[in-house]
Amino acid sequence: MEGALRELLREAEQKGIVLGLSRMRELMRELSDPQDELLFIHVAGTNGKGSVCEYLSEILKSAGYRTGQYSSPAVDGRLNQYRVNGEPIPSREHERLLSRVLKAAESLLKSGREEPTLFELETALAFLYFKEQNCDIVVLETGMGGRDDATNIINTKALCVLTGISEDHLGMIGDDITEITRTKCGIIKKGVPVVCAENGREINAVIAEECAKKGAPYIQVGRCSAYDVFYGLYGQEFSYKGRKGLRLCMGGDHQIENAAIAIEACDCLSEKGFHISEDNIREGLKASVCPFRMERISEAPEFILDGAHNPAAALSLAASLKRNAKGRALIFIMGMFKDKDYKEVCRIVAPLPRAVITVEKKDNPRALSRNLLKEALIEEGAGNVYAAGSIREAAEDALALAGSFNDSGKRPLIVAFGSFSYLSELKEEVMLIKNNDLSKPGLSPGRTVS
User: Fold this and answer.
1) What integer pLDDT is reported at residue 140 of this predicted model?
2) Over pLDDT 90: what percentage of the chain?
3) CATH 3.40.50.880 correct for 295-435
4) Pairing status of strand 329-335 against strand 302-306
5) Among 74, 218, 272, 306, whose CB has the most other CB atoms within 10 angstroms?
6) What predicted TM-score, i.e. pTM, was given to this entire model?
7) Which H or E element spans position 265?
8) What confidence tens digit (pLDDT) does each residue in 224-246 have?
């Protein structure tokens, strides 16, 4: 890539999040609007978007459709943001298309127009790639909100999906839950069916009102619609609308609802002429796996990574642990963003663990201080809380604690959660430690945990 284009990319990375569609419209016009030749399922919401997108993509792939999937944020590497039939974009293709998108952005700048953000560049790249790959359908996850999100440039939607909605990104996409819901409902297009989670009376009323304005059919998935449910940390089973014994490989109570949303979405697609069988649904649900959604990275000791980074997600995580890890010695690793309601997250999780290790990703300006997070946990009554000096140290200390608890017969379970931004690094550190046969390193000097 040319030096000037690399500098343009660096400037876009520094620009941060800037909502609005004007830059995206100009960028896509410069690239001949490839998105207009694709068909989309557009997914918005606060929690559950990534899981629902994964279920839908796997089901559609099982049904024989060439399926594109665009995810945000890049929780497991840049290339995995762009997948076709589950396969990430090859690095050579990514480099080629990124150069093309940056040249289009450079052309806009030379004509006096505004520079796109990094997310807008990434989204444009996705549209180009999926068009080149001749995708039959694209499962498209919003970045933030909905109405003014770069993904909302699209007009050719087969279906809109709204997952669980809660107060998040306050001040950026709305000042209260009603405004936030209306912003997310901005993806709804005239006459396009909407499948949504059950979100409580106030949110449901807003969604119904927005659907009525657009003449959009509205299907709500009830939280109690599933039956014969068998919960688990690493696998679950349920029945839904006559489909019995559906199996999931992803743990967490909330995944039952996410899977039900995907099933309802597929039923809507079937009504629009897609051919999706019950076997396709079974195969797709069972094949679905998302990084950092109750992801087990070690069995001895058991070590789970989960992206619970706001109060609603923390409630789901706590419910799953209370149900499926009762009586076990829980060791938490927590890292949060300072613009999240971390105090409420601490209130929810503080009663559960035997020990908590707080971390801070120091190269991220949004990262909450590990010491502030420690103080918030202690204020909520958590015991044995300390701040690790690094993510490596947190991994070593958690593994050491698990060893001491295991020796006393307390069946330890390490759960690392919070911001996606540190989970990838933590996963790498744990793998390095275990591969070097350092599964029981000593605690850092001066630290004791009872």
Assistant:
1) 98
2) 74
3) no
4) unpaired
5) 306
6) 0.90
7) helix 254-271
8) 789 999 999 888 999 999 999 99
Q: What is the DSSP string of 372-417?
A: HHHHHHHHTT--SEEE-SSHHHHHHHHHHHHHHHHHTT--EEEEEE
Cα torsion at 201, 207, 210, 212 (round to 10°)? -80
Please give the C-alpha separations between residue 40 and each of 32, 185, 194, 199, in angstroms, as whole numbers. 18, 16, 13, 24
Count the residues in the chain: 450
Query: What secondary structure letter does DSSP report for 187?
Result: G
Q: How is residue 161 written in tokens?
A: 């999906």
Cα–Cα distance, 289 to 83 (Å, whole number): 14
Pair 314, 349: CB distance under 8 Å = yes
Calpha distance 270→158 (Å, rounded): 11
Superfamily name and number for 3-287: Mur-like, catalytic domain (3.40.1190.10)
pLDDT in tens, 69-100: 999 876 777 899 999 999 999 999 999 999 99
As a whole number of angstroms, the distance between CA 15 and CA 243 comes to 48
Q: Structure tokens of 93?
A: 């293709």
Give the relative orientation of helices 118-132 and 22-30 as an angle to the nearest 10 degrees.
40
47 by DSSP, 3-state: which? strand
Beta pairing class for 218-221 and 194-197: parallel
Domain spans of the chain, in order of start: 3-287, 295-435
